[in-house]
Amino acid sequence: MTLWTSADAAAATGGQATRDFAITGVSIDTRTIQPGDLFVALQAARDGHDFVATALEKGAAAALVSRIPEGVDPDAPLLVAGDVLAALEALGRAGRARMQGRVIGITGSVGKTSTKEMARIALTGQGNIHAAEASYNNHWGVPLTLARMPADTDFAIIEIGMNHPGEIEPLARMARPHVAMITTVAAAHLEAFGAIEGIAREKGAIFRALMQPGTAILPEDLPVTQILRDCADEAGAIVIGFGAHGMAKPVKADTQDGITQVRARVLGETVDFTLASAGTHFVMNAVGVLAALSAAGADVVAAGRALSDWHPPLGRGAVEDLGGIRLIDDAYNSNPTSLSAGLATLARLTGGRRVAILGDMLELGPDEIAMHSGMADDPAMASVDLIHTAGSRMRALHDALPPARRGIHAENAAELAARIGELVAMGDIVLVKGSKSSKVSTVVDALRRTRQATPPGERTS
Q1: Cβ atoms within 10 Å, residue 432
Q2: Mean pLDDT confidence for 330-337
Q3: Beta carbons of 441 and 331 less than 8 angstroms apart
């Protein structure tokens, strides 16, 4: 199905098409490009113009460029615009303008991507659904998602992220959501904001982009909840809180074998759902999602049933059986709030020794060492039998732990991965968590290699 004609794309971007074409998708990566895509030659670490010829050879219907690249025929199918990123943004705004369905925007310090996936899966069977791919939530990810959106979309879920002040609102104004949800506010990117109150105000800026009348879905019970409410009130939004004391709240949650059965009250309705996770933070976010979907006009009971098909994304808390151990792969990001949630999930699982393998938490600002050492006092730590650490910051936690729980400390994740045989034993329940740049995922990779090669019943040593 045609997503954009050359005439539509030229009108949206103010660019000039070298010939007629019709595109069925939009891509920024020649490694995954599909026949019929519009290749967008963004300039980042590499100049996308260097890959236009490759994109066309792989079947791209056209390329969005600021100039005719070297080695590309001038009559090749091109959309020439003054600035490629600005043209992508314009195409995204045009995609949003022609769509008549409902848009849900999701942001938060933790859990944006997993919550976006919850919403996407929960809406199964309720029309044409469009959602951001992976973690496409930044200055190019949001317009790319909007540019890819079919005109007949009934529900769109747009993930919106930030690293620095002033990033949320412009991206949210591209998406123009009818409903905006904040998953939580935590000590992430503190280097740029200085204090968690600043992060809360930046997250709350999403509400200023709401279509009117818009609905703000926000977490109750946070120290900064009132800041979020103030942001929503200033934007004239309808406010729905989720959490233990919210208008959307879990009434009962029973966990067994890593599966949680939940009964929730969502805006007056009782909703039963099942989550493939033992994490209470996932339960809370699922309740928030159901509130957001209800506010967007979806069938919330049907959405609850569909949630049983959701699983945590790779690297974001999925629990798997792996060669005689249970692995919680949460190696994509980390901050004190998400680490506390990960440890709580580990504590809720039973059946073996609980082991945590932790990499540095990054971008926490001047108090980062105290934040790392302070994790030794997390309530869930009492249920963890052994904690291995990697990185200069995690050294502070290693030193703060009681000797009986102090495992191996390494200068980096690669050194820890090289000693994988010393870290775990048959029957262990293992949490691996750290900021992405700590590369603690190398430990996950090593576990997968060694445990898959270890016959059942054998112990690693």
Answers
A1: 27
A2: 92
A3: yes
Q: Do 300 and 324 belong to one domain?
A: no
C-alpha separations of 219 from 161, 180, 314, 447 in Å: 17, 12, 25, 35
Lowest mean pLDDT segment, chosen from 210-214, 262-266, 318-322: 318-322
Q: Which residues pair with 131 in a beta bridge?
A: 157
Task: Tell me the residue range of the domain where 152 lies.
Answer: 99-309
pLDDT digits (tens, 9 = 90+) for 260-274: 999 999 999 999 999
Ordered alpha helix ranges (H), 179-267: 190-193, 196-204, 225-234
CA distance 387 to 369: 17
**Which of 274, 309, 344 is a domain's end point?**
309
Q: Is 288 helix (H, G, I), strand (E, B) or coil?
A: helix
- What does the block give as tokens for 141? 């990810």
Q: Please give the Cα distance from 244 to 231 (Å, whole number).
A: 21
Q: What is the mean pLDDT of residues 34-57?
A: 96
Distance separating alpha carbons of residues 394 and 362, to the nearest angstrom: 10
Token digits of residue 10? 């030229």
* pLDDT above 60: residue 362: yes
Give me the residue label for tokens 């740029």. 192
Q: 270 and 372 share a domain?
A: no
Annotated binding site: 108-114
Over pLDDT 90: what percentage of the chain? Answer: 87
Place of tokens 């997503």: 3
pLDDT for residue 189 = 65
In a domain, 92, yes or no: no
| Binding-site sequence positions for ATP | 108-114
Contact 438, 390 (CB under 8 A): yes
Please tell me the total count of domains within the chain.
Answer: 3
CB 341 within 8 A of CB 362: no
Task: Give me the residue label for tokens 């001047």.
Answer: 366
Dihedral Cα 111, 113, 114, 116, nearest 10 deg: 110
Write down the pTM of the prediction: 0.87
